Amino acid sequence: MNAEIRPIRTPAEQALIAELGGLPAGTDRLADLRRAAARSFEENGLPHRRVEEWKYTDLRTLMREATPVAGTAAVAEADARARLLREVEARRIVVANGAVVPELSDLAGLEEGLTVTTLAAAIASGDEVLSRVGGILPGRYDAALALNTALARDGVVLTVAPGVTIERPIHVAHVFAGDAAAASYARSLVVVGAGAKLTYVESFEGPEAVAYQANAATEFVVGDEAHLDVVRLQEDGASAFHLATLLFDVGREAQVHAFTFGLGAGVARTSLYATLSGESSQVGFNGASLLKGRQHADSTLFVDHQVPGCESRELFKTVLDDSARGVFQGKIVVRQAAQKTDGRMMSRALVLGEDAEMDNKPELEIFADDVQCGHGATCGDIDEELLFYLRARGIPLKEAQSLLVQAFVGEAVETVEHEGLREALVERAEAWLKARG
Amino acid sequence: MAMLEIDNLHAKIDGEHGKEILKGLSLKVNPGEVHAIMGPNGSGKSTLSYILAGKEDYEVTDGSVTLDGEDLLEMEIDERAAKGVFLAFQYPVEVPGVATMTFLRSALNAQRKKRGEEEISTPDFLRLVKDKAGHLGISQDMLKRGVNVGFSGGEKKRAEILQMAILEPKLCILDETDSGLDIDALKIVSEGVNALRSPDRAMIVITHYQRLLNHIVPDFVHVMHKGRIVRSGGKELALELEANGYAEYQQDAA
Ligand SMILES: Nc1ncnc2c1ncn2[C@@H]1O[C@H](COP(=O)(O)OP(=O)(O)OP(=O)(O)O)[C@@H](O)[C@H]1O
Ligand SMILES: [Mg+2]
Q: Where do the SUF system FeS cluster assembly SufBD N-terminal domain residues begin and end (chain A) (predicted)?
């Protein structure tokens, strides 16, 4: 069969494999994980459009070059570039070019029950928390995650002790600093103990004109009856390549809500994997993308209901201007044991640009018989009747469009519980609309 | 010169085989006047109001419309609003996610800006809305919702009049504002409209029922039929139509 013949390795693949050859030796579990990830990358390479999960985001074609791993960022530049969400009261940790910058991070005076360390420090000291890194598996080969596992040297490792509520959100501000194309890899782990509560924020940004690559993966281990809110704001530079993986393992009666907001990067792929492994949990994975120019953004979700009685909700909104391209792929799997599952997934796209395009692929795979599941996808222009109504009251065209786009995105942004964060995201959406002119 | 001069207006549905709806309609409206337009379903009343407001689904094939001597048909939709054209819709749409207060304020400020006036301050705006809403029996709860979202038919009509009261247009076009209103609401809305009557404001009131015209007494009544005004008279014409219907005009046209 033709399909079994490995295509010739692209220059990017060759460069990455060379990079992987330089992995440090080691006998610890993490070193094993890295080697395994490197091997799987060597075998499978970058996915192309004939790989179902990457059908609309042909990484092999899009990622023409693999840039070298980024060096240490200058502290002053990292500080100057990390602007996002500064107004939100939070414990801020800056990760520049994939490494935590202690000088810019607020790691003192941690609340009782909160531990924050860096992956690099945990590796150096052989911290036992490392045994949890790489614990959540996506259940399929994922090139972005494999590269991250193999190449990430640092990131944030955070645990909240059982029963502890951390009021102040943790904000991990990822930033790229430098003016040469390079790749950053950051790997983070968030463990929320049973009955604990946490709001975790990630932001991404960097220079507009540098073709850097940001590969970030975060694992969230959510204990029984824990509450976790995740907010993710991606505003990488217009020439950047953003590859993100979010992995969740959700315990019994836990409540998890994540909101991913994507406005930046030339090409962005955000993969979210959630394993619902404890009964009666409630999860909401929502998001919005605002795209313009020739941006390409892909949100791919995989929600795995393994046990009975869980509820999952997904609402994704995409606004496409100019000749932007949006992709939503969402899959809800309901295993045979997962009776009484309630799963609903919806993707809605609003097309403003004449040459914009949206690919929607929501899917259900159900092996249990007593479930309530649904999915849907819509894609449409701005409603002319509504636009006329606003304009007939004197509101100019662009402003009327902005109001309607804000309303469209607002439905998803409103799911963010934290008021300060919600307002900050609304403000980012407004800024995007203003920049449209 | 009249405020509004419609001369021999012909319009069709936009598109290659769009049918002609307005077939040579002429009308002059002076400041201070209230004109009622009555006519059978489908005669083109709403079409006329949409064309005045600037809806893009129609193509004007002949004739002209001027507002204070300026070519209305050349103006953008929002420009017409800023010049004082206001259409109270027959079927106001719901705009989920756009808060009523944001909408009212955006509209008012956009119009002011276009006219070179200053934006309204927050306290002045809140006071203005509270005052006007109170008179029209519109609750604070309704104002907190999205524009018209979840409003009953009658509430939507009231909300249209609230917008009109806040925006203080020069030319008010009311398209079947009475339909869907209960007896009390009809009174409240009519009072709201009458409060806006003034020597420099004109109104075109489209209705099927004489009842509304007992409250909003018109200076002129016009009968529209098949895209034309086929008869004009004083307020007694409405009574005559109420008694006899449109049979006479249907025959004329046949
Ligand atoms: N966008 C459109 N596409 C197709 N036909 C249209 C459109 N708008 C109006 N029409 C047609 O034009 C004619 C006039 O419609 P219009 O709504 O103006 O009538 P009207 O006098 O307001 O009627 P009513 O008293 O029922 O409100 C009708 O036959 C209607 O079906
Ligand atoms: Mg009508």
A: 29-172
Give the integer Cα–Cα distance in Å for A126 and A148.
Answer: 20
Write out the residue range of the structural domain in which residue B228 sits.
4-253
Residue B217, SS3?
coil
A391/B106 Cβ within 8 A: no
The tens digit of pLDDT for each residue in A165-191 reads: 999 999 999 999 999 999 999 999 999
Q: Could you tell me what percent of chain A has a pLDDT over 70? A: 98
State the total domains in chain B: 1
Q: What is the pTM of this model?
A: 0.92
Quick one: pLDDT at residue A7?
A: 66
Sheet containing A325-334: which strands, arranged edge to edge? A114-118, A156-160, A183-192, A213-222, A241-250, A267-276, A296-305, A325-334, A357-366
Interface of B with A (CB under 8 A): 53-56, 76-78, 80-82, 86-87, 89, 92-93, 95-98, 102-103, 106-108, 110-111, 114, 146, 163, 167
Q: Which residues of B are less than 8 Å from A392 in CB distance?
A: 53-55, 77-78, 80-81, 86-87
Structural contact between residues A303 and A346, judged by C-beta atoms closer than 8 angstroms: no
CATH number at residue B66: 3.40.50.300
